[in-house]
Amino acid sequence: MLYPAVAELEKVAKSRYALVITIAKRARQISENAEACGTELAEKPVKLAIMDIYNGKVALKNQELSAEE
Predict the structure, then answer these.
(1) Would the pLDDT of 12 be above 80?
(2) What is the reported pTM?
């Protein structure tokens, strides 16, 4: 079973497509930031992006990704 469930993540975005795009953009941000800082990630960027969205650290506003860091 996936954690968090896709149904729970869909509440954040209007559609699954928007959710996937948001996760992909956030994962790319995480990956680029880690590479720029020379930091090694404990988890894969996609997993970290999913958890950021689930925990409310990232929001989708007017189809734009907005990270609250």
Answers:
(1) no
(2) 0.79
